[in-house]
Amino acid sequence: MKKKIGIFYKKGNSNVISSAVLNIDREMMEVLGISANENNLKFSFKNNKITIQKGILKNPIKLKDKSVIEKNIKLNFVRVYKDKDYLTTRLNVPSAVIKAMRLTSEDNEVEVTAVDDKLIIERSKKEMGKVFSIKVNKGGIGKTFLTVQLGYGLAMQDKKVLLLTSDSQNNILDYTLSDEEVEKIDFKKDLRYCVMNDKVETVKLRTNLYFIPTKSSLFTDRFLERLPDFIKKMQEEYDYILIDSIPTMKIDSTFVACSDKVIIPMFCDNPTLKGALNVISETGIEKIHSIIVNKYRPTATQKSILKEIKEAIEGTDIVFPEPIKELSQVETLARKGKTIWESRARILTPAQESLLDIILKL
Question: What is the pLDDT of residues 248-261, one digit of tens each?
């Protein structure tokens, strides 16, 4: 059965949990075999699951290791005065468990399963978020620009979006925040810190749009080993994760491996075409979600390359929207830390429509 844990925060501090309560109904009490006069329970938390059972633990574990908790608890019985014969029963859940399960007052649903005389409580499984890498083996194509536009486009569709980057320049911030806002960011709590400490420290860029910066593009083997598990946890929290990649495939291979699909931005020139073909060759064409041409100018050469790309992907499921033209308005918005969704200029409508073609098929 699905239940919700009531999570309450200290007044004036939404980061500190004052209490967390799960109401225990009669059916659950029958499974446990307890009553108001016999309410001792063994409470344990391990492998991200709560197990409660009637009885008393002989050697409970103190709250040192927050991933494994064992303690003795008693249920709270509260009389409902409208029905004097009925008592509501409440289980107080330690705040350390709430944090470990990544539950919040907005996302607090759990699944309660009866196994013999035990109750197993775990976070309700929801559809895992999708992961996309924006990738091409050449610099200066507009990967970061497109990552931001796609990310905020999804966020505006009421999707919760996390942006990651393997690039220590963190240009995502330049496309979304002012210099004064960037100066306030604590880069010590970057992606490496989050992965190695199993903590999440994000920068809020817009409503529903978050970012974890990267202090260094030099990643240790240990970091790369732990990255896939971290991204999986983030998939439980976010509907979409977009990864802004650097041009070096060797460094980015783990990020790409964690991605469901790859989005390739490119110019209509031979060097970028080769870079795009390298990504397709290294990842496999079945992993390519879309290809989008940026800063397009309808010259004879660019028209020819555009035609060549269309013919190459004909018959595949790869999304290939109309090219985004080279526009000074885009550069102006970028300098102001604004996205193309935050402008009413009609000249940007075709670019918005091209990005929507991708967004609606992600």
Answer: 555 678 999 999 99
